[in-house]
Design brief:
alpha/beta, 10 strands, oxidoreductase, globular, two-stranded antiparallel sheet, eight-stranded parallel beta barrel, TIM Barrel, about 300 residues
Length: about 300
């Protein structure tokens, strides 16, 4: 697979999809923001298609007031709002209930991403997303997403395996079968399609059929991506960035996910039952840069609301 060809063809025209397969694969994409980055965007309708799902990342130390204000603003703009609920950042059931009440009461939130949170020491009673689910406080939500790790997670499986991760996914699969909420797995970003395909096929073989929303790092400087990849524990696919870094002629060029997307889109086209349902972008090089890149490749489904 052409893992390093991340430039668009020279004759490609802005606004034109790279291929029908890529256009179809990008349809219904989601994107992630933080309150501080959202504050820099004057109007999200200038950047994103109407109804785009926007995750709001909750970084440790972020005030819930800022999170809710961002959710309220996005909801008023016509977007589907999905805030993070990081278990290890939440002190107790009372705080969780307060957060949920604020999101639902002030911003009409009905979707949530539940995750451990990546914090070494829990702030209180919760250590993982299963404990959040067990509170019953998310009953009535229309959609619940959980975290996935195509290349493993050493915070959960210290030995580098996946025994604990797989056990957690089986538990969540069982919950999904008795829940009224639509559930999906939103994953960490990766850079190589091969391990992602192998991981998705493994889940299917294990009877885990939750739809996968594959994490994709948006266009960014190579140094920026390497920094985030190391911090987030990206696994073997980090070698794609490291190989690129050895080519001094490409160090100053933006690193774009065209080949990664194209490989997955082609696999999906050949295998319609493949478990990836949607793409979720981490705009590490900026949301405007990511939105422009996506618009140029997603056809009509990538047109911002104010231009539709």
């Amino acid at each position: 697979m052409a893992l390093l060809n991340f430039r668009r063809p020279a004759d490609a025209q802005p606004g034109a999809p790279v291929s029908p397969e890529v256009e179809a694969f990008l349809k219904g994409f989601s994107i992630e923001v933080m309150p501080r980055t959202a504050d820099k965007v004057e109007d999200f309708r200038d950047l994103l298609p109407d109804g785009t799902r926007v995750y709001i990342a909750h970084i440790e130390g972020t005030a819930i007031e800022d999170m809710v204000a961002t959710a309220r603003r996005l909801a008023k703009g016509g977007f589907q709002v999905m805030p993070h609920f990081p278990a290890r950042v939440i002190r107790d059931r009372a705080e969780l209930a307060d957060w949920i009440a604020r999101y639902r009461g002030e911003a009409g939130v009905e979707q949530a991403l539940l995750l451990g949170g990546g914090v070494a020491k829990p702030a209180g009673d919760f250590d993982n997303s299963m404990q959040l689910i067990e509170t019953g406080l998310f009953d009535g939500f229309t959609r619940l997403h959980i975290a996935g790790h195509p290349e493993g997670n050493r915070d959960i499986d210290l030995d580098g395996g996946d025994r604990n991760v797989m056990a957690a996914l089986r538990w969540k699969q069982a919950f999904a079968e008795r829940s009224d909420a639509r559930m999906a797995i939103a994953t960490q970003f990766a850079f190589d399609a091969a391990p992602v395909i192998a991981w998705a096929d493994r889940l299917a073989a294990e009877g885990i059929d939750l739809p996968i929303h594959i994490g994709v790092a948006g266009p960014a400087k190579l140094q920026t991506l390497i920094k985030f990849a190391i911090a987030c524990g990206v696994g073997p696919s980090l070698k794609v960035l490291q190989k690129r870094a050895k080519d001094v002629t490409k160090l100053l060029l933006p690193f774009e996910p065209d080949a990664f997307i194209a490989d997955l889109a082609a696999h999906k086209a050949r295998n319609p039952g493949f478990g990836i349902e949607a793409v979720h972008f981490f705009p590490l090089g900026g949301i405007k840069t990511n939105a422009t890149w996506t618009k140029d490749r997603a056809g009509a489904s990538g047109v911002p609301a104010n231009q539709a």
